[in-house]
Amino acid sequence: MADIANIDRNQDDPAEQISAVLQLAGISQVGKIERILSGGMNQVYIVDDELVIRINDGRDGRTFERESKILKTIKGRVKVPEIVFSDFSQTQMPFDIMVLKRIPGQPLVSEWSTLNDSQRRVYIMRICDELRKLHGLPLGDIRELGEETPWATRVEQYIEECLESASQDEQIDHQIVLFLKEYFSVNKRELQNPCQQVLTHNDIHFGNILVSNGELQALLDFEYSGICPIDFELAKIINFCFTPGQYVEKKLERHYDKPMPDVLKWFMEFYPELFQQRSLAVRQRLFLIPEILWGFKVAYIPKVSSDRDRSDAISPEELIQKLQMAYDRFHYVFGEQFPHIKNEASP
Question: Which of 248, 308, 324, 345 is the most interior residue, by most CB within 10 Å?
Fold first, then answer.
């Protein structure tokens, strides 16, 4: 049996770590342990096809703990995984822990390329149904999950920080940064527009949708969730629909190398309320400024795969492709035909 007191997150064998987690959770030792995600701040394991264990090193601030509170609060009202144990004290283990019941199914990202349009449309309808339930939760139940600083102030500060950082980054097109700074300066007052505040997921993409046999099983990964204007949810969906490749593993990129306008069209069909905010086009452009800047920055970072070391230099072909995608996203968001978004002038 693992010695909990002597577990080292950086050195111990994963099996030893998981054994220690199960011991802490009071769960009997089991057999098969499969790692399904390893990178950044998170490690994710499946144990005997019955449990999912998520380990986080705590560098994410308190988002991991907040996600746990959100899942416990909305369980039974929105399709989400059930937490059976969590610990964020880091007093008995040197990392944050979440143990969840495993839900049978697979991420929609793995299945999408095999579906016809009729099947795809049904899945988007199912996603919209769950988002409506999420957005419809009484704020009194989740108010404690909000932030003390007003949302518009936090977002404005974040965009300003992104622009300032980009202005000092020689790898990002200087003219685009100047344009975005000017656009933000002229239109940032639109962030203060009255808008329905709801609990949003803020990371809707096909990797975070669990499905099985044509049914949506669960929404996953609420680490970016928060109380936000309802149209902030739309910005993340738009970004995914235009650059789906950045949300998938390298082995799946060939299925997601083009924008998916039909997906956005189906979101508009099944959840039109997302598209009805005043000054919608201006607000969406403001929300997407950090994503546009990140597209240029990440273009210089090679995408890691199982047969490629992190230290490998990016190839010229990959760099050109990713830079082109970054420019395309900029022209898409600020173009005259921002799809499905009314291009109204800022008053």
Answer: 248
Task: Report yes or no: 231 and 284 within 8 Å, Cβ to Cβ.
Answer: yes
Q: Tell me what pLDDT residue 340 has.
A: 56
Whole-number percent of the chain with pLDDT over 70: 84
Distances 255 to 110, 113, 324 between C-alpha atoms, Å: 10, 6, 18
Residue 162, token pair as written in the block: 């992104």
Given a cut of 80, whether residue 304 has pLDDT beyond it is no
User: pTM of the full predicted structure?
Assistant: 0.87
For residues 274-291, one letter each, b for 16 or more C-beta atoms within 10 angstroms of the residue's C-beta and e for the rest, the string is: bbebebbbbbbbbbbbbb
Beta bridge partners of 54: 44, 98
DSSP state of 75: B
pLDDT at 108 over 90: yes
The whole-number pLDDT of residue 40 equals: 55
pLDDT at 308 over 50: no
Measure the CA–CA gap between 222 and 203, rounded to whole angstroms. 8
Contact 178, 337 (CB under 8 A): no
Give residue 209's identity as a one-letter amino acid code. Answer: I
In the block, residue with structure tokens 């099944």 = 270
Region 208-225: mean pLDDT is: 95
pLDDT tens digits for 43-74?
888 888 889 988 887 666 567 888 898 999 99
Q: Which of 133, 121, 177, 151 is nearest to 296 (CA)?
A: 177
Those residues whose C-beta lies under 8 Å from the C-beta of residue 61, and which sit 6 or more positions away, are none
Q: Where are the domains of the chain?
A: 4-101, 106-334
CATH fold label, 4-101: Phosphorylase Kinase; domain 1 (3.30.200)
Higher-confidence position of 321 and 175: 175
Enumerate the H helices of the chain as residue ranges: 14-25, 63-74, 108-111, 117-135, 139-142, 151-167, 174-187, 230-242, 261-270, 280-298, 316-334
Spatial contact of 341 and 284, defined as CB atoms under 8 Å apart: yes
Structure tokens at 277: 């905010």
Taking the domain 106-334, which CATH number applies? 3.90.1200.10
- C-alpha closest to that of 132 among 83, 81, 79, 209: 79
